[in-house]
Each structure stands twice: as structure tokens, then as C-alpha cells.
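Renewal narrative, Specific Aim 1. Our central claim is that a sequence can be written position by position from structural information alone. The example that follows is taken directly from our test logs and has not been curated for this report. It begins with the C-alpha cells describing the chain, in the order in which they were read.
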């Protein structure tokens, strides 16, 4: 069998351990192992530039990556299923770590999270409608089971008027939602003394946190 000496490791190896240079129409001077090592080292050194270039490409070619991934899944069903199973097992064994990492990322990138959710709602209208219905049913069930005298539309208008139709947390004049100071899920009452008007961002940020925890996190 024909052999050749690698220009990098200087070891004599069989010719089939070398790649082929199509531009020069000849066998490469470095063996496959050395080429792979050099490529990995270059990728590590230029990782940020590669990521930036990839982002630029995907933004200027919307849908290309998705189509490429779709075709790969069709042409490699066994590999795709194997990767899916591997991802499921990893998620199962590292659930707490992943949840913590995701939470930190969402906190650091609120605009990206908002844009991602918006895209998901546009691309999956049926699923979004079902999710919205489930969320509404869940909130309604909590309200119906919560203690308190309830709040009439007239009373709610009065509460908003007391705050000048502004958010109780950020004082911005935006579309308002009813927020329970002590969350219903934590035993709060569905009553006048436990509600304030809140804009959507503040209402979503507070979630089921207590008022003190919400205000503390705003200071961080």
C-alpha cells in the first residue's frame, strides 16, 4: 500500500489516511488527524467570529437553516431519533441545572424572550390559542376558589382611578391588568384590598412572587 509522510506530525501513514485537495487536485500534505486537530484549534480561536457570521447569515437568509435541518431529519431518521433520545436523557438527568441556567438567561435577555414568545405565537396559532385558554381556565379556577368578596367592574375602575390609570409599580401609563398583591396561588384574597393596576411587563415579572420579593429583584 502506498504511504506518505505527514507534513505536521512527520509520521509515515497509508495514503487513505489523507484527504484530497480538490483545488490542487492532489492528496493533502497533512493527514486527516492533523487536519482535524488544526481545524478544531482554529474554531476555538475564532469562536466568537464564527458565531457572529452565523447570526448574520441566518438573519439575511431566514428559513434556510430550518429547511436544512428539516431535510437532514428526513434523510437521517435513525440519527435524528438517537439524538432526540440522548437530549431527553440529558434533560432528565440535568433538569435542575438546565432550569437554573434557563432562568438566568431569561432574566438577562427579557427582550429576546419576549420576541421568541411572539414568534412562537405567530408560528403556532392553534397551540397558542389552546395555551391561552388553559391559562385563562387556570386563573379563573383560582379566582373562583379564592377567599374574598370579589371585585365588580365599577370597583376596578375606581381602583385604577386611584392610581391615575397608571401602573402601581412603574407609574407608566400603559394598558393595565389586575394584579393581586398577595398572589391567589399563595392564599391571597380576591378583594379590593389586595388588588392594584399593573402593566403587562410588571404583571408578568411579578408573577406569583410576593411583593417584597418582586421589589427586591427589581433592585438587583
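The sequence written for that structure reads:
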Amino acid at each position: 500500500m502506498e504511504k506518505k509522510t505527514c507534513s505536521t506530525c512527520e509520521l509515515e501513514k497509508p495514503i487513505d489516511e489523507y484527504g484530497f485537495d480538490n483545488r490542487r487536485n492532489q492528496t493533502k500534505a497533512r493527514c486527516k488527524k492533523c487536519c482535524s486537530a488544526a481545524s478544531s484549534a482554529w474554531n476555538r480561536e475564532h469562536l466568537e467570529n464564527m458565531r457572529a457570521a452565523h447570526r448574520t447569515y441566518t438573519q439575511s437568509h431566514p428559513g434556510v437553516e430550518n429547511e436544512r435541518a428539516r431535510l437532514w431529519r428526513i434523510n437521517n431518521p435513525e440519527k435524528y431519533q438517537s439524538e432526540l433520545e440522548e437530549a431527553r436523557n440529558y434533560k432528565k438527568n440535568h433538569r435542575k441545572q438546565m432550569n437554573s441556567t434557563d432562568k438566568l438567561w431569561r432574566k438577562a435577555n427579557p427582550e429576546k424572550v419576549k420576541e421568541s414568545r411572539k414568534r412562537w405565537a405567530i408560528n403556532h396559532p392553534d397551540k397558542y390559542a389552546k395555551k391561552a385558554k388553559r391559562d385563562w381556565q387556570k386563573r379563573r379556577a383560582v379566582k373562583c376558589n379564592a377567599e374574598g368578596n370579589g371585585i365588580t367592574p365599577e370597583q376596578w375602575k375606581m381602583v385604577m382611578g386611584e392610581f391615575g390609570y397608571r401602573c402601581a409599580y412603574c407609574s407608566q401609563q400603559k394598558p393595565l391588568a389586575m394584579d393581586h398583591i398577595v398572589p391567589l396561588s399563595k392564599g391571597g384574597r380576591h378583594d379590593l384590598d389586595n388588588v392594584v393596576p399593573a402593566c403587562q411587563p410588571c404583571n408578568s415579572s411579578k408573577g406569583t412572587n410576593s411583593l417584597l420579593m418582586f421589589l427586591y429583584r427589581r433592585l438587583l
